[in-house]
Automatic annotation (TrEMBL), chains A, B:
Keyword Protein biosynthesis tagged: yes
GO cellular component: cytoplasm
EC number: 6.1.1.21
GO process terms (BP): histidyl-tRNA aminoacylation
Residue ranges constituting the Aminoacyl-transfer RNA synthetases class-II family profile domain according to the UniProt record: 22-345
Top-level lineage group: Bacteria
Amino acids binding L-histidine: 84-86, 114, 128, 132, 276, 280-281
Protein name according to UniProt: Histidine--tRNA ligase
PROSITE patterns membership: AA_TRNA_LIGASE_II
GO molecular function, one term: ATP binding
Length: 437, 437
């Protein structure tokens, strides 16, 4: 077999990067659970008709086929890999509604797949960490204000640059466009969504062509509004457009911004140009900027969806947000902005005097593990220098020498070279486990 | 949309089952890390030629295709979902050998996919938890003795019935069959592998047909040997077969059994009928029985492989084992033998007097979370009885009532009905987080 090479679009981390990722996930989980979100996983596959029901990403679905499929299998359901965690979650809620307690809050950390053309920073397989709250029939809008608080706490628990959550409201935009007399607000949303990419003059021209210059100016003026408090309300009012849906959206967005201002100052900014690509959002929408990495786009996005989970007269409106973990870590690793204090879980390497005495070293390792200290035994009874170098290469900070002749058990910190009697020794708190930095 | 139904072969847990699974995985990880295994993940897909290189499961591979694939994509690599974690790990080691430190120890907890016909207890998507140790050029056989110790600790940390790890050695069997003058030992291994399924007389007939009755008797006698210590060595010797490979295998198996007997009495049993289906094993092989669930087969299997990771003159022999997490949990859930102490992470529900006072309840929740206590705020300012019933239905043990008029903040244990002043209150240690039982 020849040496394999990476597959474009399918990132894999080196062990110390995966260790960092694992610690990031543990901290996210910790915050999600503190807010009462339950862990959940759905299968990786969905029937194709589920996946193609909604959203622009449907064209990027990977379909599955058994290699040894025969004609008998022709009637097998067509399956595809999920491209996000929201569509499968909505399906799960419908399928298990009778066994769930509502409002139901869950977090879900899983890989998703999109068969896009690989490009810089665009993955075909990547990890997402989602939180969602769904309720039966109606979902109070205070949950739209809670989601940013959870994400703020979760991301602030990481040693990464500060984040700003940009918030808008679909009703606000739709109401505004309708108030202007525009009948297809979705079309305007799609045009405004490209604002950062193509610039205001292209957006203005595109809207003006069909709806006239005055309306185009109004849409651009709305998209230009941004504030960290409810002061955006006056700015919207000044544009002089009226529609009941606009009022609803303005009130909901004001509540999100004000709740965040009270509980987590500086976290949230009403940003009225935010549109989100997916078409299932019906209320608040979120995007998230990482300071210093704004040009790479949102690292955490979501919104409220009223119609994603419904069957007959059962409706389960929800609100959620998704952290693009692979994308976020890809950016941070590339910028050397996130790492771990050591590359392995192991704190102690127990040295080995001879292969015959392996049981002695094994017993020392077992007693350290029983105290919660991650320990390995040396691979071979090599010369002591070689055993120490092995620890050094692996990034293990301490080497334990079993008693030998008149020498009692001793422990060496191979970073400082300091060597002490092992009796009563314990690693300093900061060396017990690798930590993020 | 109509209500969706489950997909046969693609299991999904209810929230409280997933909470149990999550806790199982956390404990496994904890043990693996205590032994110095690093977390690792590989992508879910491999080039088809990698997947078809080895092993009987190759016929069960799921292949991928982009839904919108065009003729331009014809030259795209054929990809399939991995069917185990050993083949991808071997590929990862070859690909990244220059960046890894050897011996390299990693654990890997991921879904795998097999396009088998669904049957009771046979999944098409399931979770595996693997540990492996690989070295460059040669791998000392003491690692074959270490693997059962790790798994023993990991499984004994769970509130499940006791396990016995059954161990055999491919060299022992191959040497024995060759010593009998049989030229294709693989064939005999495949026949003996069916022993528990088809019974000894069928196995004997099948071997006798080609190799004569005396050899068939010898093979069956070997398969009948089983011992928790090195006493199996004498029983093998008594069969009077000689071959250098047999001696090597006997010595290695004796070392595995004796190491286990010293460090973890009762854990390991030399069981010479164990063969393992996959053809990449070259030394020790493992299977694991769960007391009371023996008829469902092995819950944790693996072995040593010398030739799985090699490119040109680079060889990376390894040894590993895989816990079939989905299968294990499926069995335990079905038998009501594993559950969690409560169905949600949340310990406290903060009641809500009015929607206007939500900020007050939010602040109480925030201060509880800052103390590491998982907390939710009530969905709506309903009557107090209704808020308490909401906590009950969700399985949340405590309700916190914010100060109201002359009443100070109070906390109610809704299981006992006991209500106390909240000042200085903390949940009992056993109620802070849900625990496995």
């Amino acid at each position: 077999m020849t040496r394999p090479t990476p597959l474009s679009g399918f990132p894999e981390w080196l062990p110390e990067q995966r260790l960092a990722e694992q610690q990031v996930l543990d901290r996210l989980r910790r915050t999600f659970e503190l807010y009462g979100f339950s862990p959940l996983e759905t299968r990786a596959v969905e029937p194709l008709d589920q996946l193609l029901r909604k959203g622009e990403t449907s064209k990027e679905v990977y379909t599955l086929r058994r290699l040894q499929a025969t004609d008998d299998d022709a009637d097998e359901l067509s399956l595809g890999l999920h491209f996000d965690l929201t569509v499968p979650f909505a399906r799960y809620v419908l399928e298990n509604a009778g066994k769930l307690q509502f409002p139901f809050r869950r977090y879900q950390i899983q890989k998703v797949w999109r068969g896009e053309r690989p490009a810089a920073g665009r993955y075909r397989e990547f990890l997402q960490a989602d939180i969602d709250i769904v309720d039966r029939d109606t979902l109070p809008s205070h949950y739209e204000a809670e989601i940013p608080l959870v994400i703020g706490d979760a991301l602030r628990a990481l040693p990464i640059p500060p984040v700003t959550i940009l918030v808008n409201n679909r009703k606000l935009c739709e109401g505004f466009y309708r108030g202007l007399g525009i009948e297809d607000p979705e079309e305007i949303l799609r045009i405004v969504d490209k604002l950062d990419k193509v610039g205001p003059s292209v957006v203005k021209d595109e809207i003006a062509q069909k709806h006239g210059e005055a309306r185009a100016d109004a849409c651009l003026a709305l998209a230009g509004i941004s504030a960290q408090d409810a002061s955006f309300v006056d700015e919207v009012r000044k544009l002089g457009v009226e529609h009941p849906l606009l009022d609803e959206g303005v009130a909901e967005l004001a509540a999100v911004v004000e709740t965040a201002r009270e509980h987590s100052p500086g976290l949230v900014r009403a940003t009225l140009k935010i549109a989100r690509g997916l078409d299932y959002y019906t209320g608040t929408v979120y995007e998230t900027e990482l300071a210093g990495f704004e040009q790479f786009g949102s690292i955490c996005s979501g919104g409220r969806y009223d119609n994603l989970a419904s069957a007959g007269k059962d409706v389960f409106p929800g609100v959620g947000i998704s952290i693009g973990v692979s994308r976020l870590l890809g950016l941070l690793f590339k910028a050397d902005a996130l790492s771990v204090s050591r590359p392995v879980p192991t704190a102690v390497l127990v040295a080995l005097w001879s292969e015959e005495e392996r049981a002695v070293s094994n017993r020392i390792a077992a007693s350290l593990r029983a105290r919660g200290i991650a320990t390995e035994v040396a691979p071979a009874p090599a010369k002591l220098g070689k055993q120490i170098r092995h620890a050094e290469r692996r990034g293990i900070p301490f080497v334990w020498f079993p008693a030998n002749g008149e020498n009692p058990d001793q422990v060496k910190d191979i970073r400082s070279g300091e060597q002490v009697d092992a009796e009563g020794w314990a690693p300093p708190a900061e060396d017990i486990a690798p930590t993020l930095r």
